[in-house]
Every structure is written in C-alpha cells, then in structure tokens.
Design brief:
By secondary structure, this protein is of the alpha+beta class. It has helices spanning 7-20, 27-45, 64-69, 99-114, 117-121, 153-176; strands at 55-56, 61-62, 83-86, 91-94, 134-138, 143-147. Helix content is 47%, strand content 12%. Helix 1 (7-20) packs across helix 2 (27-45), helix 1 (7-20) crosses helix 4 and helix 2 (27-45) packs across helix 6 (153-176). The longest helix has 24 residues, at 153-176. The termini are far apart.
Length: 177
Amino acid sequence: MIKKQDSIAVANFIIERALDRKKTVTKLQLQKIMFLLQGYWLEKTGQELFCETIKHGRLQPLILSVEKEFDYWASAPIENKAAYFSCNENRIKEATIDQKLAKKLRKITNEMLDYNRRNMINLFFENNKSKQPMIINNVQTQQIWTYFMEYQPNEIIQKYHEVTKTLQNNRFSTEKD
C-alpha cells in the first residue's frame, strides 16, 4: 500500500510530466487533473491519492494549497515546480511523490495532459447551486469569507467517470473527423 501523498508533490509530478512532454499546464488545468487523478486512484485502490480535501469551486474543483502555491502563475502556463526549504537538510527541496506511485500514475497523467483544455472547461462547471461556494458576510465581526462544500469520495469517482467518458468521446469524434 502506498501512503497518501502531499498535494503539492502530486502537483509537481503533473507539472514535471507536462514539462517533459513539452505540454503546457495552467493552474486551472492543474486543479482539474489533480481531481481526475484523485478519482482514478480512489476507484483503483479505494484510497485517496493525496491528503487534502477537494472543494466545490464554481468553475473548477479547488485544492486550496495548490491554488495558493501556484497563484503567481494566474492563467499563464506553469513553468516551475514548487519547492520548500528543508531546515533539517539546510537546503531547498522539491516536494516529490513516491517513485513506485509515479510509475503507476505516469500513463494516466500523460493521457490527461493530452486532453484539449477547451474540452475540459465546461465539464467542471458547478451548476448545482447548493454546492457552489457561498459568500458569507458576518456583520458583527465585519468579516467576509467564502464557504466551500467538500467533494465526497463517491462524488469524485462519479465526476471522474463523467469527465473522462466525455473527454474520450470528444477525442474519438475529433480523431474521426
């Protein structure tokens, strides 16, 4: 059994695959691919791939640490992986995933990177109003924050099937034309 990975390490893995294959990956696309990998892994093993919860965003699934870490890139293609300073080793280190896991995820990640970004855009749009982020304004404390509903594992698997089936159908119909 492979233990849960850090979400930034999974993001770095996807970025590395994209850079190796000379593909572009944006922050928005990264979130969607991570969501699909979580669904793939949940279905295959019954375990979560990474430990962070996925929230219902309006236009995308939302993994908050990934959103924050790669915010600098906005909508531009991400050109570098995330790194952190290791106090124990007194140097900057990359967050990486287990090598056995990387081998297992390589093919599915490559397929997801091959999906047309435009085909992916509307597939994640949250049209269930009860799941959309809610803006909460607390008049007493003068604070405004956003409340995000969390995806449940069965929702992730279901959405994974919906999205990959639609993307496969789009790819097949495009190849036929």
